[in-house]
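Hey, resending since the last one bounced:
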Amino acid sequence: MNGIGVSPGISIGKARVIKKVQIALTGILLKDEVSIAAEVERFDHAVNKAINEIEFIKQNTSLNLHEEDIQILETQIEFLADPQIREDVVEKISFGKRNVNDAVIEVIGNMVNVFENMDDEYMRARAADIQDIGNRILKHANLSDHTHAQQFDPDTIIIAEDISPSDTITMGKHVIGFATQAGSKTSHAAIIAKAKGIPAVVGCGDGLGAINNGDIVVLDGAIGLVFINPDQQLIADYTKKKAVYIESVNWLRQLKEVKPITTDGTKITLMANISGADDMEDVFDNGGEGIGLLRTELLFMNRDSFPTENEQFEFYKKVALQSKSKAVIVRTIDIGGDKQLSYFNLPAEQNPFLGYRAIRICLDRTDLFITQLKAILRAAIFGDLKIMLPMISNVQEVREAKNILALAKNELLKENTAFKADVELGIMIEIPSAAITADILAKEVDFFSIGTNDLCQYTLAVDRMNEKITHLYDPFNPGVLRLISNVIDQANKQKIHVGMCGEMAADPLATLLLLGMGLTNFSMGAAAIPVIKNIIINNDLSTAKRICEEVMHMDNSQNIIKYLKEFTA
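The structure tokens again:
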């Protein structure tokens, strides 16, 4: 059975099938003010119980929690204490006469829907966290004292429709792997699995329902394979593969201090994509050399108003102080269209991916843009912060953004506020028109960062969220590769920095091809850095260039992928 491998490794064990009970809408309406007041009190009590439960989990030493676990639990406490959620639930109770059960289901359902429809994979994956806290509130609102801690037999592989972040955190030492019908690479369940070293496969589909409790399961978290009741020969083969994998992991851990330099002396920079200062430790633990993408969207989510300049300043300052003077590329706000904010009235759109979002909002609402730019400029005193503009489609947008940046600097000067004036400005190349006109854009900015996720989606006209056509989403399509190559060529000709922060940067299959194109800066999830580094230090640039030349003469991705696999086996 095929799925998405989200945490590498091999597990051989017995299945434990987990089926969650869904709490349904009751449709029962409240009749009087006394009932309304009682339901509001019931909601507040349930939230307090949920927060106390998470605090109890945090303090449970038997769970051997990792730093990632603690951070996710603290994020859930912040979600639970979010005044916007309470306001929305109380409104449903007070004016819609909904009972707590129905009010929470509707409010959480709306929030989950907003996150699930975002184009940023990391932000989409946060829907699971919202659903998790919703389930926790509902559990306590319905007077259930059941906790997430469950007892499992040794060598258990969990099989489920999906696994919540809190379920993953409280699994215990006997769980050696899990497979789910749903899920994504950037879900918190996947992040926790990687941190704990638990092999995991998600997105397996309905076929997973054929597994029963006690079935023997072999799970390959690297390539996303799940075998049900395999024969002895396959078990023996995977037992050997498991031993080889463990040896390989131990070797990769030793690469933390090794510089990513090819065998013929070409220095490569490996950076990481993060969402805040709390992710920084993991970056350096994996040998990262800075931040190639700092997402700023979470600053604007789950609140009832735009963050102030000082709130943003403190956020960026914290990242800068923890960056060890390494470069941090801050992507300006990428909201709108599919990323709705409850306090920012945006019209509904038929094509949100192509709509009013990112730089388009910033150039329209210069007040919001200037506030963010001023905060970044101020925080840049404390580290090597750089500014990156998303969703650029033409040079006029860059020039207009530069004018607004100048206005932000002038405002700070008039306020006599300290800031760094010479912050580098770059753009994401994620729209085909930008990739095609890279020669023009390169003359206007200090650096490019190639966002392969959207570049691939827009180039191939493929909605990567649509399961019917997801097979057409193909970063190795010759058209996509030619655009990437052109961007790198033009950046190098204009002598500006060029990096890549999309998923392709973390794909071992693409590493030598991208090196051969002339890419020397890769940014990815921190856990992928050692794997990519190992490829770099064991290959030379001349081989990479030869691979690139061969690939660029091929006319279909199937042959390209088959050819590249010869060099990554």
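The first strand starts at residue 4 and ends at 7.

Sorry for the duplicate.
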